[in-house]
Design a protein that fits this description.
mainly alpha; 4 helices; 2 strands
Length: 112
């Protein structure tokens, strides 16, 4: 029985990894746009009143209102239940699949 070994290219192990400037700018452009939009929404979430006018004030009132709403608290509770239960069952399924694959000797074992 032989073991598979992952061999990385020499340039990834210690050599200098070079990225094309065009590829780098193409990948950073959408990241920057998304980051700016998320930060704008975060900044606006602290405002009360009409955005961009003199009547707009900065306050935590929006967060207090949302986090004390019983419906929102129920939604958060359901979300946490879903997250933890799906993580548990996915991990259990993966563990059982790996255990079954390792303890069996069928011919197509390598396809799993």
């Amino acid at each position: 029985m032989t073991q598979a070994v992952l061999r990385l290219p020499a340039r990834l192990l210690g050599g200098r990894f070079q990225v094309s400037p065009v590829l780098l700018s193409l990948s950073l452009a959408p990241i920057t746009v998304i980051f700016v939009l998320v930060m704008a929404m975060f900044w606006i979430s602290f405002q009360r009143g009409v955005f961009g006018t003199a009547t707009a004030v900065y306050t935590l009132e929006n967060y207090r209102e949302i986090l004390t709403d019983p419906f929102v608290l129920r939604v958060i509770q359901n979300t946490l239940i879903f997250v933890y239960s799906s993580t548990f069952f996915a991990s259990l399924n993966g563990l059982l699949t790996v255990w079954r694959a390792e303890s069996s000797t069928f011919a197509i074992k390598t396809l799993m």
